[in-house]
Design brief:
This protein has 311 residues and is α/β, with parallel strands linked by helices. It has 11 helices and 9 strands. β2 and β3 form a beta hairpin. The chain is globular and about 55 Å long. The structure holds guanosine-5'-triphosphate and magnesium ion.
C-alpha cells in the first residue's frame, strides 16, 4: 500500500456509518443473517415464525465502517394486539434505516414462484418508495435443485424492480460477504457512534430474557411459544456469581404444565441451556431461578406488552 493510499484510507471521509434494517416475513432468516453479519449471536433464532418481538440491534465495526443492524419482527398478517404491535415495530425499524435488506426464504418459493407475489406484495408495496433496498434470496442451501432458484430470482426481480438480488445462505454464510460488501458501500459517510467492541445496544438483562425464551421455544411444541414471555424479576451481583430470577408467563394452566414438563424436565433442560449461554455472554457464573406464572390474555394487554418492550 502506498503512502497516499494509506492517507485516503484513514481519512474520515472514507469511513461509512449507517443503519441497515432487515425486513421480511416471519421465519425468513433475518435474525440468523444479523448474527452472521455481526459475527456474534445477538438475536435469538428458532424454527418458529414470530420469534423476534422487539427491535434488536447488532453492531459491526470494521476498519472503515460501523454498521448498526436492526433486526425487526417479521411483517405478518396475523391478527391480535401483539401482531399489530409487531408489525408497527417492524415498520418503524424500516423507516429509520439508511438501507433495507429484504430477506426472502427462497426455499419456500422454489418450484412455486407464484406464491411469491401472493406473500410479498404487501412488503414490496411498502418498500417501493425507499431509495436503498437490497434483496437477499436466503436459504439457498436448502434448495437441492439449483435450477429452481432462477425462477425465484426472476420473480423477485419483477416484484422489486431495479434492486440488486443476492442469493445467500445465512446459515452457511454462502454469499453473505458479497452482500455485506455491497451494503456497506451504499451507506452514507460518517463516523462511528459506538465503541468498537460493542455488539449491541440492548441491555444484557434483556438479552438474558431472550436467551431463556429461545430455549423454552426450542423445548416446547405447538401453540405454547406464541403465548410465552419471559421477564427478569431480579438480577444481583455477588462476588463470583450473578443471581438471576426470571418469570415465565404463559396463557393457560395447561401451558404451564407443558413448560414445566414431567417431573420438571422441560424447564430444567431449558434452564440449564439458558444458564450456560448467559454465563458465556457475561463471562460470569450464573445462578438462574425460574417461575412459571399463568397470566391469561397477557399478549392482548397493552401495559404488559409495553413492560416487555413490545410496541
Ligand atoms: N437451511 C437454512 N435455514 C436457515 C437459513 N437462515 C435461517 N434459517 C433457519 O430458519 C429458521 C428461522 O430463522 P430466524 O433467523 O429466526 O428467522 P427470522 O426471520 O428472524 O424469524 P422471525 O423472528 O420469526 O421473524 C431457523 O430455524 C433458522 O435456523 C439458511 O440460510 N438456511
Ligand atoms: Mg427473528
Amino acid at each position: 500500500m502506498t503512502k497516499k493510499d494509506k492517507l485516503t484510507d484513514n481519512h474520515p471521509d472514507s469511513y461509512r456509518f449507517g443503519v441497515i434494517s432487515l425486513a421480511g416475513l416471519p421465519n425468513a432468516g433475518k435474525s440468523t443473517l444479523m448474527n452472521r453479519l455481526v459475527g456474534e449471536k445477538v438475536a435469538i433464532v428458532t424454527p418458529r415464525p414470530q420469534t423476534t418481538r422487539n427491535r434488536i440491534t447488532g453492531i459491526l465495526t470494521g476498519n472503515d465502517h460501523q454498521v448498526v443492524f436492526l433486526d425487526t419482527p417479521g411483517i405478518n398478517r396475523a391478527r391480535g394486539r401483539m401482531n399489530e404491535l409487531l408489525n408497527r415495530t417492524a415498520m418503524e425499524g424500516l423507516m429509520s434505516a439508511d438501507l433495507i435488506i429484504v430477506l426472502v426464504d427462497s426455499s419456500r418459493y422454489s418450484g412455486r414462484p407464484s406464491l411469491l407475489l401472493k406473500e410479498l406484495v404487501l412488503l414490496a408495496d411498502r418498500l417501493a418508495d425507499f431509495d436503498s433496498v437490497l434483496i437477499a434470496a436466503n436459504k439457498v442451501d436448502k434448495v437441492r435443485d439449483k435450477q429452481l432458484i432462477l425462477p425465484v430470482m426472476q420473480g423477485l426481480g419483477d416484484m422489486f424492480p431495479g434492486r440488486q438480488i443476492f442469493p445467500v445462505s445465512a446459515l452457511s454464510g454462502e454469499g453473505c460477504k458479497l452482500l455485506l460488501h455491497r451494503a456497506i458501500a451504499m451507506l452514507p459517510r460518517g463516523s462511528a457512534l459506538y465503541p468498537e467492541d460493542q455488539i449491541s445496544t440492548l441491555p444484557v438483562r434483556f438479552m438474558a430474557a431472550e436467551i431463556i425464551r429461545e430455549k423454552l421455544f426450542l423445548h416446547t411444541r405447538q401453540e405454547i411459544p406464541y403465548g410465552l414471555a419471559v421477564d427478569i424479576e431480579y438480577w444481583t451481583e455477588e462476588d463470583n456469581l450473578t443471581r438471576i430470577g426470571a418469570i415465565i408467563f404463559v396463557l393457560k394452566n395447561s401451558h404451564k404444565s407443558m413448560v414445566i414438563g414431567k417431573r420438571g424436565h422441560v424447564l430444567k433442560a431449558a434452564g440449564m441451556e439458558a444458564r450456560q449461554e448467559i454465563e458465556a455472554l457475561i463471562s460470569r457464573k450464573v445462578y438462574l431461578e425460574t417461575w412459571v406464572k399463568v397470566r391469561p390474555g397477557w399478549n392482548e394487554n397493552r401495559s404488559i406488552l409495553a413492560s416487555m418492550g413490545i410496541g
